[in-house]
């Protein structure tokens, strides 16, 4: 028997599969990706911008220091986040615009970004360092977080709000609570993957309370949530899950922070801003 038919059928099948994916807005990097997808054990999702709309809004500002108010906290946060394109930074920028707060951007310099943690800048008028981000970034800058702040952050998390800590001159002045709505189709996607026999995991750098609040709406169990994971460790989490399940897993992510995890997965699926990374 001549093997020519098989030799022709295989690449044609791959070509047809890639074309069908393209019609649905999916760019498949190579035929090997389709082959690897056949053996997947699980699909791991990033949260922000992947399962959520990626358009968070400021819902609440908690004042934690005497002499401060909502406007001063947002002003400090905006001074650090000016020009940044991270979704949470954009939420702060939008809140400042809606409240018509005027910012002297020249009063902030020396901006530094810490992937998965936040950013800092120097307030020129006072010489104080302004830290905007999560509690891990505050720890790195020796900012004390008291019980009141922890309680506010826990409440934010239970309400599905991501807490952004704002510190000025080594003193925590407030927390900004942001919400980001789930994509309407997200719960159905999770259910459809499970119906195909795949396990689903939520992998995020957010606090456990925020991640669990999202998981409940997605129909995920607490043990299917991996929270408080920095970008550099997401790749390790993906590899660990593949080893645990004894087969390849897919990682679905959005943004540069997910690039290592996308590369570590058996199949990396980049959406939104992450698609630009995948194209490299």
Automatic annotation (TrEMBL):
<dbReference type="GO" id="GO:0005524">
    <property type="term" value="F:ATP binding"/>
</dbReference>
<keyword id="KW-0732">Signal</keyword>
<protein>
    <recommendedName>
        <fullName>Heavy metal translocating P-type ATPase</fullName>
    </recommendedName>
</protein>
<dbReference type="GO" id="GO:0016020">
    <property type="term" value="C:membrane"/>
</dbReference>
<dbReference type="InterPro" id="IPR023299">
    <property type="entry name" value="ATPase_P-typ_cyto_dom_N"/>
</dbReference>
<keyword id="KW-0472">Membrane</keyword>
<dbReference type="InterPro" id="IPR036412">
    <property type="entry name" value="HAD-like_sf"/>
</dbReference>
<dbReference type="InterPro" id="IPR023214">
    <property type="entry name" value="HAD_sf"/>
</dbReference>
<dbReference type="InterPro" id="IPR044492">
    <property type="entry name" value="P_typ_ATPase_HD_dom"/>
</dbReference>
<dbReference type="InterPro" id="IPR018303">
    <property type="entry name" value="ATPase_P-typ_P_site"/>
</dbReference>
<dbReference type="InterPro" id="IPR001757">
    <property type="entry name" value="P_typ_ATPase"/>
</dbReference>
<dbReference type="Pfam" id="PF00702">
    <property type="entry name" value="Hydrolase"/>
</dbReference>
<keyword id="KW-1133">Transmembrane helix</keyword>
<keyword id="KW-1278">Translocase</keyword>
<dbReference type="GO" id="GO:0005507">
    <property type="term" value="F:copper ion binding"/>
</dbReference>
<dbReference type="GO" id="GO:0016887">
    <property type="term" value="F:ATP hydrolysis activity"/>
</dbReference>
<dbReference type="GO" id="GO:0055070">
    <property type="term" value="P:copper ion homeostasis"/>
</dbReference>
<keyword id="KW-0812">Transmembrane</keyword>
<feature type="signal peptide">
    <location>
        <begin position="1"/>
        <end position="21"/>
    </location>
</feature>
<dbReference type="GO" id="GO:0043682">
    <property type="term" value="F:P-type divalent copper transporter activity"/>
</dbReference>
């Amino acid at each position: 028997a001549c093997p020519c038919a098989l030799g022709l059928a295989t690449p044609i099948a791959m070509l047809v599969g890639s074309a069908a994916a393209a019609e649905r807005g999916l760019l498949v990097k190579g035929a090997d990706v389709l082959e690897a997808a056949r053996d997947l054990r699980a699909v791991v999702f990033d949260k922000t911008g992947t399962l959520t709309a990626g358009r968070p809004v400021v819902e609440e500002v908690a004042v934690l220091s005497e002499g401060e108010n909502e406007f001063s906290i947002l002003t400090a946060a905006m001074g650090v986040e000016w020009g940044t394109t991270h979704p949470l930074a954009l939420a702060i920028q939008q809140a400042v615009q809606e409240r018509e707060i005027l910012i002297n951007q020249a009063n902030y310099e020396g901006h530094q970004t810490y992937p998965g943690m936040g950013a800092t800048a120097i307030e020129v008028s006072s010489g104080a360092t302004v830290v905007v981000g999560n509690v891990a970034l505050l720890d790195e800058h020796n900012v004390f977080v008291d019980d009141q702040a922890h309680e506010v952050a826990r409440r934010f998390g239970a309400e599905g709000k991501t807490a952004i800590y704002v510190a000025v001159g080594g003193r925590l002045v407030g927390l900004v609570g942001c919400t980001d709505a789930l994509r309407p189709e997200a719960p159905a996607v999770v259910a459809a993957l499970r119906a195909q026999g795949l396990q689903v995991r939520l992998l995020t750098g957010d606090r456990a309370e925020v991640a669990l609040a999202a998981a409940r709406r997605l129909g995920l169990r607490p043990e299917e949530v991996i929270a408080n994971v920095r970008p550099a460790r997401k790749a390790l989490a993906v590899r660990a899950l593949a080893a645990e399940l004894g087969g390849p897993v897919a990682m679905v992510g959005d943004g540069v922070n997910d690039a290592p995890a996308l590369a570590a997965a058996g199949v990396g699926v980049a959406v939104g801003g992450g698609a630009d990374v995948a194209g490299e």
